[in-house]
Design a protein that fits this description.
α38 (761-773) packs antiparallel against α40 (795-815). Among the domains are: 26-270; 308-432, no CATH class; 434-557; 689-695 and 826-995. The termini are far apart. 68% of the residues lie in helices and 0% in strands. The radius of gyration is 45 Å and the shape is elongated. The protein is built from 47 helices and no strands. The chain has 1027 residues and is an all-alpha fold.
């Protein structure tokens, strides 16, 4: 029985079909790789994957319809995925694969059926699950993406047979837009793109477009932001198509009577009174907010750019639609963010002529308010319009001019860059293309002449505006010289000449008239422009000469009288200097000139001093007379060393000014003067280094008038709100006020501070007057001996003294800087900075002299003053520069094997003793180290002149060592160890030289002996062979 049942089970199992296992082929593996690449975040990878998929299922390859159907299913499901960039990659693949498959009707029907089947498939695969919110959102986004792929693939509508399918498609799309507010924008954008593309087909697509408008009208969607965009897109693409009535007045959403409603629709903020009951049921308000404004805003703005050809009409539209909604005083931060993003787009894409209309009043107010404080919510967002201004200016010259004109005609442009914490105006002017530089320059200069101020046009306000405009011109030239190899001398020269016409002449066209402060500021702008241009020129003298000649020729015109108020002697001196300068220029043009370098020096000096004279500098007139004397002496052949010293004094007068132009000028001129500079001239430079870096040192170095004027040609104070970009060289306060690391004694610089911080005569006088007023004496050691009568006062006496005490303390406050008086502390600090800067420039000259004449015995005079400067200065910058200068001297002498050895050796011995005395004074480690190098430098010269000097050198070092031990001074050990090491090196070098000399002397003798030995051996061998 059991065997029979077993046989029946086996027979039934054999009758059942076997389940086949799916085999994963290589083709499946490749396709899986393609699906993975379609989700890659790199755009290029996704494109390549889509191409592979299209190539595999190309109709030319007769692909399997079933596999192609599976691929379509996979691509539609992939649109619902939020993984990486899957939605973007699958959308491209689905669109292109649909377009390719539709070319073969058989393949399309076999794989997808008809269009109705395709729509059902899309709806089925993207059907959301209401219980899973995130999955529902992904599925609905995937459905819209699939619909968009159908439109872009041009699969529907195709012919009249597809009218029902097209209507079904519109029903689905409209239902999504109506019931799902957060997808309404995507649906509207999809249809607007389709309408724009369909315009190429003309009348063939009108029926389909008419159905879209009809469907949106029936569902109440035409009165949404997306409906407005669709309406305007249809009007632009199909102007003959009839649109529904009673939607917009005269079928124009941009009509003046519809702008308030249009703004509310675009902001999605219509009240319930504006919608009827049917619309309330059909249209749901969007419950979500996006940082980017709805695409309908851009469609509306593009239509406005097209409709309104005048700036006034467009500006009125922008005020009513944008300004009063997005930038209203009570508008939310979210709406203002929309406004900033929208206006950034408008600045980039608006026609250049219409750009001024974009800058509406509320927009400018909101922009400045948000950029005024970094703590504001929209501080960074408000920067996007400013970046758009600079970006548009770089690409479009006409737009740059319009933007600049718009900003500088605003009442806030004087403070615009400051309050917005940006460099918008500066970048706008500086980044303009080459073909627009001249036009931009002319526009800036026209505003310098007539500043456009909306509220007040007073002299003070005009001065502030001219400061800003002059800064813009300087930054324009500065950027041009920094980022380009060669400069355009045409427009740079025109900028400087135009500034000169405003600075040095009275212009009848200026409104308001240019004040003296403005002229001084414009002269400073000329100096700063020249500072940027000179390093780029092969011959700076010609450029300055042309500027001086321009001023001379302009002064002959009655329409341009000179602003300089000078007597006849000064005018005659100017004319004589102009004549000499023309003579110098004529000689420079001749090829056989012998003293070309000196003539170039005179050309530079004449031109620069003349500019200072025109600016009203009183000292420049005396400098001009001295320069005429020097030139006349050179012409008569009577030029001597005094001429070089006088030219050096003129050069030092320029260096006392704080502008970096004069440092560049010194670098050009001094190498020529260094060739003929006398010992007295060098000592005049070294004397400057020994002056104190204090107010007393400044007064000692300069005359009182010069001490007050020094530095005024650099950075001028234009008020708290206005500052002019300056080329003044300022050393950091930390370097200037702190001493160098490694100071052995905190008493460094005490000598220079004693006079300043010790007993103040003014304070002593104040104490005396106060004591006299109170009938007391100054508190001192004898105060205990004061009588009781002097210490006691009744109330009436104290009240009687109140007015006298108030007046006394008021005078004291004014004397010490209070109540509008000059601050003595600030004066000291300013004097210290100016003296430090002046010394630094003098050190630059000395370094040039050392490089040019390091083999001259005169150069030895720089050793002790530079070592002393390193010890007494409180500036680490000066200490470092002095050390570098000495190091340059030592290195150049060792490199060229030329030493400044004087004819009298006693000078070197005296110098060596001074160095050893200097090293024993309290100073920094760097000072001791360079003293050691200087001592070895002198010792080397002594040994080179006479090797027997070694004994006296040993005695000198021994004497110094004894003084260090007896006096207890702190000298670095390296001072003596380096000397010992130098002695051993000298010994080894001398031993090698002696050995070399010995070899050279004995070499020929050894060769003769060797030759004789070889000859004897050869004769012996010959005798053996013969025997």
């Amino acid at each position: 029985m059991s065997q029979k049942r077993r046989r029946q089970d086996e027979s039934q199992a054999a009758a059942r079909p076997l389940k086949q296992k799916r085999v994963f082929t290589e083709q499946d593996r490749n396709r899986a790789s393609i699906y993975e690449d379609l989700a890659d975040e790199k755009h290029g990878t996704r494109i390549q994957a889509a191409k592979k998929l299209m190539d595999e299922f190309s109709p030319a390859h007769n692909p399997d319809a079933a596999k192609l159907s599976d691929v379509f299913n996979r691509l539609i499901r992939g649109l619902c995925s939020g993984r990486k960039a899957a939605r973007a990659g699958y959308f491209i693949a689905l669109t292109e694969l649909l377009r390719q498959t539709s070319t073969s009707a058989d393949l399309f029907s076999e794989s997808l059926g008809n269009l109705q089947d395709l729509l059902l498939l899309i709806n089925k695969l993207t059907k959301p699950d209401q219980n899973l919110p995130q999955e529902t959102r992904d599925k609905l986004i995937g459905r819209v993406s699939a619909y968009k792929a159908l439109l872009q693939a041009s699969v529907l509508p195709g012919s009249s047979d597809n009218a029902e399918i097209w209507e079904s498609f519109l029903d689905n799309t409209s239902k999504l837009a109506r019931d799902t507010p957060w997808l309404r924008e995507e649906c509207g954008l999809m249809l607007c793109d389709f309408i724009s593309i369909s315009a190429k087909n003309g009348e063939k697509s009108q029926d389909a477009i008419r159905q879209i408008v009809s469907k949106y009208s029936d569902d109440g969607l035409l009165q949404t932001a997306e409906g407005v965009a669709l309406w305007l897109t249809v009007q632009k693409a199909f102007p003959d198509l009839k649109l529904p009535k009673d939607i917009w007045h005269k079928k124009d959403p941009l009509h003046s009577t519809e702008r308030t409603r249009l703004a509310r629709i675009l902001c999605d903020s219509r009240s319930s009174n504006e919608l009827d009951s049917e619309q309330k049921k059909k249209i749901k308000s969007s419950g979500s907010w996006k940082p980017q404004p709805n695409f309908a805003w851009r469609v509306v703005m593009e239509q406005a750019f097209s409709n309104f050809s005048s700036v006034s009409k467009l500006k009125q539209f922008c005020i009513e639609v944008l300004d009063n909604s997005l930038f209203a005083e009570k508008a939310s931060a979210e709406r203002k963010l929309w406004g900033f993003n929208l206006l950034s787009w408008a600045i980039n894409f608006a026609p250049a002529d219409l750009l001024p209309a974009v800058f509406t009043p509320n927009f400018k107010r909101t922009l400045i308010n948000q950029r005024a404080d970094p703590k504001r919510d929209l501080f960074e967002a408000a920067n996007s319009p400013l970046e758009a201004v600079v970006s548009r200016a770089e690409k479009d010259v006409d737009a740059a001019l319009k933007l600049f004109e718009t900003l500088v005609t605003s009442e806030t442009y004087v403070h615009f860059d400051r309050v917005t914490k940006s460099n918008t105006l500066s970048k706008l002017v500086s980044n303009v293309a080459d073909n627009g530089k001249l036009a931009m320059m002319d526009m800036v200069l026209s505003h310098v002449l007539r500043p456009q101020l909306e509220e007040s046009n007073t002299t003070e306000e005009a001065h502030k505006a001219r400061v800003i405009l002059a800064n813009l011109l300087v930054s324009m030239i500065s950027r041009h010289t920094k980022h380009e190899g060669s400069i355009n001398q045409t427009w740079t020269g025109k900028v400087v000449q135009s500034l000169a016409s405003y600075a040095y002449f009275k212009s009848k066209q200026a409104e308001p008239p240019i004040s003296d402060d403005s002229r001084s500021m414009l002269h400073d702008a000329i100096v700063r422009c020249t500072t940027h241009v000179l390093p780029k020129l092969d011959n700076p003298g010609d450029w300055l000469y042309s500027l001086a000649q321009y001023i001379q020729k302009s002064s002959k015109s009655s329409d341009h009288p000179l602003a300089l108020k000078a007597d006849r002697n000064v005018i005659d001196s100017i004319q004589e200097s102009q004549k000499m300068m023309r003579e110098v220029n004529k000689k420079l043009k001749s090829a056989d000139v012998s003293n070309r370098e000196f003539l170039q020096v005179f050309q530079l000096l004449f031109a620069l001093i003349l500019l200072e004279v025109y600016s009203g500098d009183a000292d420049a007139c005396d400098m001009l007379a001295e320069l005429q004397t020097c030139y006349a002496s050179m012409q008569t052949g009577k030029a001597d060393a005094q001429v070089f010293d006088l030219l050096l004094e003129l050069l030092l007068s320029f260096l006392s000014k704080t502008s970096s132009l004069y440092r560049q000028f010194a670098d050009l001129v001094f190498p020529v003067l260094a060739k003929g500079m006398t010992e007295d001239g060098l000592e005049s430079l070294l004397d400057i280094l020994q002056k104190k870096e204090t107010l007393a040192g400044q007064e000692e170095l300069f005359e009182s008038a010069d001490a007050e004027d020094i530095g005024e040609n650099g950075e001028e104070d234009y008020g708290d709100d206005i500052s002019i970009d300056s080329d003044v060289e300022i050393m950091s306060a930390s370097e200037d006020e702190s001493t160098t690391n490694g100071i052995k004694d905190s008493t460094k610089g005490v000598d220079e501070e004693t006079d300043e911080d010790g007993e103040d005569p003014e304070l002593q006088h104040f104490n005396d007057v106060l004591a006299q007023t109170l009938r007391t004496s100054v508190p001192n050691a004898d105060a205990a001996d004061s009588s009781e009568e002097e210490s006691d006062m009744d109330d009436e006496q104290m009240l009687a003294l109140d007015p006298q005490l108030a007046k006394l303390f008021q005078e004291r406050r004014q004397a010490t800087g209070g109540a509008g008086g000059p601050s003595k502390k600030k004066e000291k600090s300013k004097a210290k900075l100016q003296m430090t800067l002046f010394k630094s420039r003098v050190l630059d000259l000395i370094q040039i002299y050392v490089k040019k004449r390091h083999a001259s015995p005169v150069v030895l005079k720089v050793l002790i003053p530079l070592l002393s400067l390193m010890r007494i200065t409180s500036s680490s910058e000066l200490e470092k520069k002095a050390k570098t200068t000495l190091g340059t001297l030592f290195e150049n002498c060792d490199r060229d094997k030329q030493f400044p050895t004087p004819s009298d050796a006693n000078e070197l011995w005296s110098l060596l003793r001074d160095i050893h005395d200097e090293v024993q004074k309290d100073a920094s480690k760097q000072h001791d180290a360079i003293c050691g190098r200087a001592s070895l430098f002198v010792a080397k010269m002594l040994m080179l002149s006479d090797r027997t000097n070694i004994r006296r050198l040993i005695d000198e070092y021994g004497k110094t060592q004894v003084q260090v031990v007896e006096n207890g001074t702190n000298v670095q050990t390296s001072f003596f160890t380096e000397w010992c090491g130098w002695c051993m090196q000298w010994k080894h070098r001398a031993d090698r030289q002696n050995e070399k000399n010995k070899k050279e002397a004995t070499g020929p003798i050894q060769q003769d002996k060797g030759g004789k030995k070889d000859k004897n051996k050869k004769n012996a061998n010959a005798r053996i062979e013969s025997s």
